[in-house]
Amino acid sequence: METVFSKIIEGTIPAHKVYENERILAFYDIEPAAPVHVLIIPKKFIASMNEVTPEDLPLIAEIHSVAQQLARELGIAESGYRLINNCGPDSGQAVPHLHYHLLGGTKLGALVGNSASHA
Q: Domain HIT, which positions (predicted)?
């Protein structure tokens, strides 16, 4: 399936890349929701978290490892960051290609279930 992300992967749409290997690409979001807002995507097409198979789990683990690395490199690991995966239209997933948002660089607002009583 062709998406804006597949076009970024193939290089027909430019992106400000911060990480790339043969399986994963990370680049700055063009409409940032925080001072640091990076998208991390697998190069393999997976429409959403609902389509992740057991064979994809090493790739998902690698994405999380890349997120940790980027948080350190971008100076947000110590102060804190958010790693978000939206799944499906009601969640706000706008591009049907699995992706994670790495957000930080400011105090982020509370989310549902983000209080001490839910810890």
A: 4-117
